[in-house]
Design brief:
Blueprint (H helix, E strand, L loop, with lengths): L5 H7 L1 H9 L1 E5 L3 H12 L4 E5 L24 H12 L4 E5 L18 E4 L4 H14 L3 E4 L11 E5 L7 H13 L5 E5 L25 H18 L9
Parallel strand pairs: 1-2, 1-4, 2-3, 4-5, 5-7
Antiparallel strand pairs: 6-7
């Protein structure tokens, strides 16, 4: 056995690798959390990835986003991420959408075409719409809760939205999911209370609207998202037990 997935195949088995190759996953948001999820999905051999984000790489992204380099500043994040995926796995079918996902843009996507949806966007309205669209299509989805203003990467958990606590974003999502009849939503969240950002040294004001972030917290959240997707996609195949 040789090849770029040989080490993965030792743990997952040949059938699981074949299942991943046939899978199509949509990742909404390819920033600090979503970018790392894309990275892990590509390196795990997922055969098709749809990347959705309308943002461009900014200087402030360099501290935490895997696609952010001085050489990629100003480029669309989906273009950078797509090129990186193709460099990792040339056989992966990559489609990029320079779209800011909101309920108003939901019709641009066929959720029944996906084997899994990864929600790594920031807006509550968009996250709720993704959950509704995935539920209607019968497509599995996993959603990232708040990763900003946090410093403990070990505090993340995978659970249902209605079992979450502490996280302010999760609290809003619980309320709104109930209103919309969303009975289940798999999430990655942290019980670490969000920190209050320090005063900005240049502006001398509290930046309440812009969360602080570090290299290791959103990265871990993204890797957990990808790990759950891989586990669920290959669940029917079973591990390569010896």
């Amino acid at each position: 056995m040789s090849g770029q997935l040989s080490r993965t195949e030792l743990l997952l088995g040949e059938q699981a690798i074949a299942a991943l190759k046939k899978a199509r996953v949509a990742v909404f948001g390819v920033g600090g959390v979503g970018g790392c999820a894309v990275e892990a999905l590509a390196r795990s051999g997922v055969g098709a990835l749809d990347l959705i984000d309308n943002d461009t790489v900014a200087l402030s992204n360099l501290n935490r986003q895997i696609i952010a380099l001085h050489s990629t500043l100003g480029q669309y994040k989906v273009d950078v991420a797509g090129a990186r995926v193709k460099d990792i796995n040339p056989d992966c079918v990559v489609r990029v959408f320079k779209t800011f996902y909101l309920p108003e843009t939901a019709d641009e996507f066929d959720f029944s075409a996906y084997d899994y949806v990864v929600d790594a966007i920031d807006t509550v309205g968009g996250k709720l719409s993704l959950a509704e669209q995935a539920q209607a299509a019968g497509t599995p989805i996993i959603s990232a809760m708040g990763a900003g203003n946090k410093l403990d990467p070990t505090a993340f958990e995978v659970t249902d939205i209605f079992k979450t606590s502490v996280c302010p974003l999760a609290r809003v999502m619980r309320t709104e999911c109930r209103k919309r009849g969303i009975k289940h939503l798999k999430v990655v969240y942290s019980k670490e209370p969000p920190l209050r950002p320090l005063k900005d040294s240049n502006e001398n004001t509290l930046r309440r609207s812009v969360p602080g972030s570090v290299a290791f917290v959103p990265t871990v959240a993204g890797m957990i998202l990808a790990g759950e997707v891989i586990r669920d996609l290959i669940k029917k195949e079973g591990p390569n037990e010896q």
